[in-house]
Amino acid sequence: MPDIEFLYRDADVVAVNKPSGLAVHRGWSDDDEFAMTLVRDALGHWVYPVHRLDRGASGVLLFALSKESARALCERFERREVKKHYLALVRGAPPDELVIDHPLKPDNSEEPQPAITDVRRLAQLGRYAWVEAKPHTGRLHQIRRHLKHISCPIIGDVKYGKGEHNRLFRERYALHRLALHASRLELAGLDIHAPLPPELASALAQLSQLEQERRTSPQ
User: Fold this and answer.
1) Cα–Cα distance measured from residue 28 to residue 195, given in angstroms and rounded to the nearest whole number
2) Which of 138, 92, 152, 96 has its CA nearest to residue 121?
3) pTM for this model (two decimals)
4) Which among 165, 172, 169 is positioned nearest to 151, based on CA atoms?
5) Total number of domains in the chain
6) Catalytic-residue membership of 54
7) What pLDDT score was predicted for residue 215?
8) Same domain, yes or no: 92 and 65
9) In terms of domains, do 108 and 193 share one?
10) More confident site: 189 or 158
11) Looking at the structure, do residues 2 and 73 belong to the same domain, yes or no?
12) What is the pLDDT of residues 64-100, one digit of tens each?
């Protein structure tokens, strides 16, 4: 059973640091274990999912503790009153800062829906970059699709990424997951942070070390 790290709890909500590879609830996966049931069993209290976090991603995941709180939180998400911050390791060299305004088609429709993501490059590490992404809309796989749209796919993304780079990170850096982490969530005075998982931190440290050696080595 995966360990669930609790980040915050009050009378209305609970926030956990979801590990990569764990689906939020049964409707999104055929797995045997889900974040919702693990949190419910750990608390001994029913919980209600209020937003989506990809199975392959890790980071801040929020649950409501009552139907009333769930309804209120869902309305806040719909009004875009919740600020979400993600960290991602990508292939390529994105600009220092950019706004990706690119509509996305949902799976059940041919009509594209507005989708906007702010992206900021935090570090360029050779052929790869460490970026922060802040979505303004909540489309399915929005960050993954937007980063692919600018030719900077996320490492470990088997649907939108590049197999050769995914294999390199599995073999060289022991990174067997989607390199996307929901690092921070801001909501109604709350500011919840999720620490970077060890496997992502290790790959990032190794890339940073290689880049430092490259910059300081004699040409």
Assistant:
1) 25
2) 96
3) 0.94
4) 165
5) 2
6) yes
7) 84
8) no
9) yes
10) 158
11) yes
12) 999 999 999 999 999 999 999 999 999 999 999 999 9
Q: 46, 79, 112 — which closes off a domain?
A: 79
DSSP state of 197: P
Q: Are 131 and 88 in contact (CB under 8 A)?
A: yes
Residue 206 Cα distances to 59, 94, 124, 138, 170, angstroms: 21, 20, 13, 32, 13
Residue with tokens 């796989």: 141
Domain range for 111: 81-219
On whether the CB atoms of residues 25 and 147 are closer than 8 A, the answer is no
Structure tokens at 28: 């999104």
- Does 100 lie in the same domain as 159? yes
Last residue of a domain, one of 24, 51, 79: 79
Take residue 8 and report the two structure tokens written for it.
């915050």
Task: Please check whether residues 57 and 74 belong to one and the same domain.
Answer: yes
Which residue in 30, 32, 54, 191 is the catalytic one?
A: 54
